[in-house]
Specification:
By secondary structure, the protein is mainly beta. Helices cover about 15% and strands about 45% of the residues. It is built from 2 helices and 11 strands. The strands form 2 sheets. Strands 8-1-2-11-10-9 form a 6-stranded mixed beta sheet, with no helix packed on it. A 5-stranded mixed beta sheet has the order 3-6-7-5-4. A hairpin with a 2-residue loop joins strand 6 and strand 7.
Length: about 160
């Protein structure tokens, strides 16, 4: 049986560079200002490090680096979107977060092969059509591979145990 699509998606909308993206709000735990990030040695290039978020150590990735898109310089509007990927909590740095919106499923199309975006297609689950703009809808579960998530978990355990000593 085919998976039924929801009638409406509720999305957190954010920008990286000149592109607007949307992610399902059910995966977003919170949005925080850019805070001090502790560097992790041996981490992949797109993993910025970890942050201490109210006592929980959270890995932070630079979403622009991960997606291979150009971002704006970090500033007042830079945010970390804290998301849940399965059992893991990960922070994703974005240039700005603009809104939360509801988008009917009929306004979402599969990714056309000619779409003008630098983002690799396997990260995208659709394109949201609004009156005067398009949103690239990301599938957050595909942003990190299983191996990358294991690496992040290993680094977090190491960081947490070092903190406890």
């Amino acid at each position: 049986m085919a998976e039924e699509k929801p009638k409406e998606y509720q999305l957190v909308v954010f920008a990286i560079g000149d592109e607007e993206f949307g992610v399902d709000i059910s995966q977003v735990r919170e949005i925080v200002r850019l805070i001090q990030i502790t560097y992790l040695p041996k981490a992949p290039m797109f993993i910025e490090g970890v942050v201490n978020l109210r006592g929980q150590v959270v890995a932070v990735i630079d979403l622009a680096k991960r997606l291979g898109v150009k971002s704006n310089p970090r500033g007042e509007s830079t945010r970390i979107i804290i998301v849940e990927l399965g059992e893991n909590v990960v922070g994703m740095i974005v240039d700005s977060v603009s809104e939360v919106l509801r988008l009917p499923s009929e306004n979402i199309e599969e990714v056309p092969h000619i779409i003008d975006t630098e983002v690799p297609e396997h990260y995208i689950f659709g394109v949201g059509k609004l009156k005067d703009r398009l949103l690239v809808l990301l599938d957050l579960n595909k942003v990190l591979t299983a191996e990358e998530m294991q690496h992040v978990e290993h680094q977090l355990k190491a960081a947490s145990s070092a903190k406890e000593k």
